[in-house]
Write a structure and sequence with these properties.
With 216 residues, this protein is an alpha/beta fold. Helix content is 31%, strand content 22%. The chain has two domains: 27-70; 92-202, Alpha-Beta Plaits (2-Layer Sandwich). It has five helices and seven strands; from the N terminus they run H-H-E-E-H-E-E-H-E-E-H-E. The protein starts with 26 loop residues before the first helix and ends with a strand.
């Protein structure tokens, strides 16, 4: 029995010779494991490179989609109401109205002048229109005054007759205005509606001003 044979062992476990046999690992399994790891790493690199190319050509569409529509929102001005200044208009008591009848119907000038007086206007001349306008005003009427009254006395008096034409002449008195009744005249505007129109004229509706809001 060799000195290398452990005590109590013999037969098929008998070791002969004077050296232990070399115990070598199985190199085949090691190579297979390395090959698997290398393959997985290569596939991962290929997949990552493909995703990078997709992002390059699509402009990062996935990230933009994930961010939602708010990502593309930008601030832009939008209108919001702002207070308009109150106009310094003359009051009816500061305006003298001459009432002229340019129709074939009698009595219209006097009746209209009486109603305007009740509404606070001063009354000047009352009678028939001159040849320049007699039977030549086709609408409800005409409000005639100085150029300086175009944004003052004229529009104030025009609130009393819906559809009245505004016209200026060379007179020097801006507080004196002519109301010429035309062939389509029936009556003055109802006082309630005229008062509303006068209020709107003195204080126009708010105009839009720019504020910032997001648009997508």
């Amino acid at each position: 029995m060799s000195m290398l044979t452990p005590p109590g062992m013999g037969g098929q476990y008998k070791i002969t010779g004077d050296k232990y046999p070399r115990m070598r690992r199985n190199r085949g399994r090691r190579r297979i494991a390395l090959a698997v790891v290398a393959s997985v790493a290569a596939l991962g690199l290929i997949g990552w490179g493909t995703l990078q190319l997709i992002d390059v050509f699509t402009g990062g569409g996935d990230e933009a989609s994930a961010a939602g529509p708010a990502a593309d929102c930008t601030a832009s001005p939008s209108p919001s109401p702002s207070a308009s200044p109150v106009k310094a208009l003359p009051k009816p008591g500061q305006i003298t109205v001459n009432v002229f009848n340019a129709t074939p119907r009698g009595g219209l000038a006097k009746d209209t002048a009486d109603e305007l007086k009740k509404r606070g206007f001063k009354i000047g001349d009352v009678g028939n229109a001159t040849k320049t306008y007699d039977k030549k005003v086709k609408g409800a009427g005409m409000v005639l005054g100085a150029k300086a009254a175009s944004d003052a006395a004229l529009p104030v008096l025009a609130t009393q007759l819906t559809g009245a034409e505004l016209k200026t002449d060379t007179r020097a008195k801006p507080a004196e205005v002519d109301l010429i009744l035309g062939t389509a005249f029936k009556s003055l505007t109802k006082k309630e509606d005229a008062d509303k129109a006068l209020t709107t004229l003195a204080k126009p509706a708010p105009t839009p001003s720019a504020t910032s809001k997001k648009t997508c």
